[in-house]
Amino acid sequence: MKNKSLLILSALAMMPVLHAAAEPKRMVVCTITEGFRHSSIPQSEKALQAIDEASPNLEIVKWLRQPEIEVPAAPRPPKEPADKASQDKYQRAMQAWDRDVKPEADRKKRELHEAVKKSLQALSPQALRDNRIDAVIFSNTTGNLPLPDLQGFADWVRSGGAFIGMHSATDTLKGALPYTEMICGIFEGHREQVPVKLHAGDKEHPANAGIGAIWTLAQEEMYLIKQHHRNLVRSIWFMRHHPNDPKQEGFFPVAWVRKFGEGRVFYTSLGHREDLWSTDPALPDRINSVETAAQFRKHLTGGIRWAVGLETGSSEPNPQTN
């Protein structure tokens, strides 16, 4: 009887441990922008929510969304080459805007910046630890986001956190070395959207999502990436030609993973177009198929699950891939 009681007590003592092991990975998703704002962000939020709902061991515990503060936009200059009449019209519009609108626009800009700073307090190292966050996702963020402690954020990832970046995450904090060293790439530019053929750097990785050796997209805005160190990352998808100049051969990175200290980083430059994020067949102006959108979602899911340690896959750099 005594042995049976001891077994029961031992089992009860183990229950909190088992429960803790089964807890979903806790994620914060940020879609805040301090620069260009992609029209696909609402679709990206829906897609990430769908990934969350389809994955019992993943949980988005906090969304960091753009504060609802409208900043009046300045008149746009005419497209070049512009005739004198168009230039004069623009100059008159700018003079009126400077006189009548700019003071209010500046006030709204300051208000927005302060609201963004307040929201991003959730990414302080202390807040990430206190809220037991496992991963932070930057989905189509842009600009110099005022993180409360940028070095501390990078150190949080280095000490075992996960960072996932999508599309313009490389157009974010481009002058901040702790961030660019972590993500291992900076947006250099892009040209017009084009059909694209991607090659797999690792067909077995979860972020390949079973797509195989080749992945074709009907249309996407393909980024050119600089300060990308191939000896530090494992290529997942890449192009063998400049997206807008097929005669220019080379290695053009698209998606990769890496270990960063004890942490993990997954980045994909895909995600400009709404029809990559959305699997709704009724989405207006669809060019990429629903099947391609489903592949993209699997690509994201595999990368996220790898980053938080739910899937196995190599992070060994493969700089010889071409």
Structural notes for this entry:
By secondary structure, this protein is α/β, with parallel strands linked by helices. It has a single domain, classed as Class I glutamine amidotransferase (GATase) domain (Rossmann fold, 3-Layer(aba) Sandwich). Helix content is 35%, strand content 23%. It has nine helices and eleven strands. It has helices at residues 2-22, 41-54, 84-100, 102-119, 125-130, 150-158, 177-183, 274-277, 290-307; strands at residues 25-30, 58-64, 135-139, 162-166, 186-189, 194-200, 214-220, 224-226, 234-242, 245-260, 263-268. The protein has a nine-stranded mixed sheet. A two-stranded antiparallel ribbon has the order 5-8.
Strand order of the largest sheet: 2-1-3-4-11-10-9-6-7
CATH architecture: 3-Layer(aba) Sandwich
Q: Quick one: how many beta strands?
A: 11
What count of domains describes the coordinates? 1
Taking the sheet with the most strands, its summary is: 9 strands, mixed
Q: How does the helix and strand content classify structurally?
A: alpha/beta
Ends distance? 67 Å
Oligomer type: single chain
- What is the CATH H-level superfamily? Class I glutamine amidotransferase (GATase) domain
* CATH fold call: Rossmann fold
* Mean pLDDT over the residues: 94
**Helical residue percent band:** 25-40%
The H-and-E topology, N to C, reads as: HEHEHHHEHEHEEEEEEEHH
CATH class: Alpha Beta
Number of helices: 9
Which shape, going by the Cα principal axes?
globular
| Low-confidence blocks of residues | 4-9
Rg, rounded, reads 23 Å
> What percent of residues are in strands?
15-25%
